[in-house]
Design the sequence.
């Protein structure tokens, strides 16, 4: 089985969708065979990883694997990774090239300690090694690291960009997709190309003819249904059941706190509440979403949120 | 001079006091035991008669006790040496054998590395019944053992049984002690019969004992039990009492946080109070997050106060009901599924390498679609 996000990943900077302001600079770096340390910042699915890999392929050609190391900070986020794996790779001389490249994806997940350790490593090995860091929020990268990197901000993709790329895939896979379905894919993906391609591939499993119905069908399968059930319990005042559902979502289904809140946010408008209450709920969600991004535990924070929902719908 | 606690040790199981239910389940367990069946894990507070029961039982049935307690080193190799060899051998002098691994919760994580795991491995191959004892059944170290054993609960020795036993002993020792004195000793022992007997022996040397003499002995500091801590936090209206309640319990603050998380719903019923309590807990959780990310341990006091006092004062008044406090479901779930989760995470990480993203992202963005993609 091919996963299309990989099958159609840009093989060269030429193929990267939009992000011209970044890509043009990157091409110059390749031409001059000299690149600085870089920090790629931007929302998910807009081409950060794609640009990094495309850059490396353009730079090193066939043997790009030799001088390239990809690490995912969200899986290996501790200081030990910086002290061991990163150092070990950086220490060894590049093969047939002036320098190697380490791509540190989701580096906003690195602990502060690890970032502090990284800061020295970047300097120490800059003779033989370049770092490309990617992150969603550059504010989570400590300023000493930011100051050592050129910061490139990736913009959210426009609808035309996403549709154009999807059309390339549609042609190659010999699918037939109507324009309503393309609209639906873009809307559901919110400009995230990875999500858009996944939606397209999943919808294709229902047949070569893709309609907006099949797209919505696939999307709803992937959506956590239980979120609505959980919210209903809270609104009805049955906190115990709401809590039980929450534990199920987090522990058994392994959903991230942020995703549960986003799903809640989408569901609010379907709840039987006055419009005013809905706005109140949304303002509360924002608060707990922020707390989770600050490191709060999703179960405890969402429990507090559900309890708030319970009393404010009672007052209605 | 002999110590009374061993001099007056029960010789028969019928002499075990105040543990009717525990005793019965032990006898039933032993009657049904044959190689391959679960060992017994007797849990209960100090001085409730756990070890005495096993010793009295062995005496009664003529069994040889092979014992290993916290004073022994209990590393994997030490255990193999003591127990491993005699697992399948018949006893030389007695009718049979019984293994007693006393105070398993006293096994030190570092010093006795691998000990509990080793024991778990031996259980299946044992030709003789095996009994474990511990105080704190919910000690995380024992999670593997809990599942592998038949659990037998011992409670505190009740007040009246304790008095009766003290009375018997004082008569045998020709000691004149009034009912008042005995009941006072029993009361301050708080269900720990061993300490009551020790106190009795201490006072026996004085003639014409009066109640005020008892004050010369300090009360024992007992390890608070997590269930008692829950009771205080949820029943008290004093923020300070709630805060102090966790001081003597051998659990880390972040583990206690999950105990409180689990039990708020078992106690509070009024929606406003639930909301207030969870909000206090959520704020405590934020302080824990800040402590973790910045290693700023100074913030611990705020986290602790919010989760104890904050939750305690969320109620308008005490609920006059009996609440059954429970073990945190999150911790329970995580320990049951540890192996499965480990395997799944490894698979996700493997996929992540191919797809150039983190395992978190694979779980979130690919997993829901994978089933369809395989078909495509």
Sequence:
């Amino acid at each position: 089985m091919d996963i299309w996000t990989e099958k159609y990943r840009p093989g060269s900077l030429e193929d990267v969708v939009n992000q011209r302001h970044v890509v043009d600079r990157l091409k110059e770096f390749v031409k001059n065979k000299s690149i600085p340390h870089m920090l790629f910042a931007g929302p998910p699915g807009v081409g950060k990883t794609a640009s990094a890999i495309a850059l490396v392929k353009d730079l090193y050609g066939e043997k790009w694997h030799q001088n390239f190391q990809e690490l995912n900070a969200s899986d290996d986020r501790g200081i030990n990774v910086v002290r061991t794996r990163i150092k070990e790779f950086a220490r060894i001389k590049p093969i047939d090239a002036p320098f190697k490249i380490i791509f540190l994806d989701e580096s906003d997940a690195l602990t502060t300690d690890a970032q502090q350790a990284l800061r020295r490593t970047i300097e120490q090995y800059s003779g033989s090694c370049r770092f490309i860091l990617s992150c969603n929020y550059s504010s989570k990268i400590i300023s000493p690291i930011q100051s050592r990197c050129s910061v490139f901000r990736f913009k959210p993709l426009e609808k035309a960009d996403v549709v154009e790329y999807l059309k390339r895939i549609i042609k190659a896979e010999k699918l037939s997709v109507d324009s309503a379905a393309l609209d639906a894919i873009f809307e559901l993906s919110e400009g995230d190309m990875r999500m858009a391609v996944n939606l397209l591939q999943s919808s294709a499993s229902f047949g070569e003819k893709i309609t907006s119905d099949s797209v919505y069908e696939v999307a709803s399968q992937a959506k956590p249904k239980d979120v609505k059930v959980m919210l209903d319990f809270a609104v009805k005042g049955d906190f115990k059941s709401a809590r039980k559902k929450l534990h199920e979502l987090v522990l058994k289904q392994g959903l991230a706190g942020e995703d549960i809140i986003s799903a809640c946010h989408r569901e609010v408008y379907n709840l039987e509440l006055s419009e005013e209450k809905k706005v109140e709920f949304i303002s509360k969600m924002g608060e707990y979403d922020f707390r989770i991004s600050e490191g709060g535990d999703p179960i405890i924070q969402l429990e507090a949120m559900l309890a708030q929902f319970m009393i404010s719908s009672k007052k209605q | 001079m002999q110590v009374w606690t061993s001099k007056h040790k029960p010789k028969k199981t019928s002499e075990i006091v105040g543990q009717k239910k525990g005793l019965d389940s032990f006898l039933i367990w032993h009657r049904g035991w044959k190689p391959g069946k679960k060992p017994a894990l007797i849990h209960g507070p100090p001085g409730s008669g756990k070890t005495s029961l096993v010793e009295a039982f062995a005496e009664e049935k003529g069994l040889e006790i092979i014992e290993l307690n916290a004073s022994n080193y209990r590393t994997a190799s030490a255990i193999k040496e003591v127990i491993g060899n005699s697992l399948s051998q018949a006893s030389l002098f007695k009718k049979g054998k019984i293994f007693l691994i006393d105070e398993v919760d006293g096994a030190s994580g570092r010093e006795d590395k691998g000990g509990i795991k080793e024991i778990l491995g031996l259980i299946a191959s044992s030709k003789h019944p095996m009994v474990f004892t511990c105080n704190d059944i919910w000690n995380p170290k024992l999670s593997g053992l809990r599942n592998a054993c038949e659990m037998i609960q011992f409670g505190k020795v009740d007040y009246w049984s304790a008095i009766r036993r003290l009375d018997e002993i004082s008569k045998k020792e020709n000691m004149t002690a009034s009912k008042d004195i005995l009941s006072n000793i029993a009361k301050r022992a708080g269900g720990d019969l061993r300490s009551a007997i020790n106190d009795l022996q201490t006072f026996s040397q004085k003639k014409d004992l009066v109640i005020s003499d008892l004050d010369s002995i300090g009360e024992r500091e007992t390890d608070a039990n997590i269930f008692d801590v829950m009771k205080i936090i949820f029943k008290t209206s004093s923020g300070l009492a709630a805060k102090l309640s966790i001081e003597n319990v051998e659990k880390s603050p972040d583990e206690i946080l999950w105990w409180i998380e689990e039990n708020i719903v078992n106690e509070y019923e009024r929606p406003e109070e639930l909301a207030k309590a969870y909000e206090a807990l959520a704020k405590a959780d934020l302080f824990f997050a800040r402590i973790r990310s910045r290693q700023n341990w100074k913030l611990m006091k705020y986290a602790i106060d919010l989760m104890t006092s904050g939750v305690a004062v969320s109620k308008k008044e005490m609920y006059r009901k009996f609440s059954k406090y429970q073990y945190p479901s999150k911790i329970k779930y995580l320990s049951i599924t540890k192996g499965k989760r480990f395997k799944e995470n490894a698979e996700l990480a493997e996929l992540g390498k191919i797809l150039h993203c983190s395992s978190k992202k694979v779980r979130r963005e690919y997993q829901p679609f994978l089933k369809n993609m395989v078909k495509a």
